[in-house]
Amino acid sequence: MTEAVICQQDEGARRWFYGGGVHTWKVTAEQSGGAFLLFEDDLVAGKRTPLHQHPDSDETFLMLAGEILVHLDGEELSVGPGGVAMIPRGVPHAFLVTSPTARMLCLQTPGCGQAFFFGASHPLADSETDGPVDFDKVMASAKENGGMVPLGPPPFAAG
Fold it and tell me: In the prediction, which pLDDT does 79 show?
């Protein structure tokens, strides 16, 4: 049986994601009984993901601030503050931060991809705001933990 979770704005475990960005975990898969995972992602301009898919979970981005360009199954669409992008499981996608900074909530349902995110990140102290970008660690976590399947390099033009 799961229990209620209350997590205020400045609360939650902070982790540096080796693909770039600070994750603040709001609800873990364990807390939701595996139903979902939810984290806030703080990003900077130019952060881009490789083309990838999540084979066993749907991924939803709710933009809190800033803007991203989402490459979704071959099409590119801009998502700004208050906007939502929902990517069904198995659909190839990537995103690029086009504003100076961006902040979004990332929801995955079910929460089976959490081991990937934890394997591709490390805990941050409250005073830390960034860390090294190391896509080899991201790819190693995908191979070891599942949850994400890399399909190719970022599909966006170099900028």
Answer: 98
- The one-character DSSP state at 6 is -
**Cα 67 to Cα 79: distance, rounded to the nearest angstrom:** 6
CATH number at 60 reads 2.60.120.10
Which pTM does this prediction carry?
0.94
Contact yes or no for 135/50 (Cβ under 8 A) = yes
d(CA 119, CA 93): 21
Asked whether residue 69 is assigned to any structural domain, the reply reads yes
What's the one-letter identity of residue 114?
Q
114-146 in b/e form (b: 16+ CB < 10 A) is: bebbbbbbeebeeeeeebeeeeebbbebbeebb
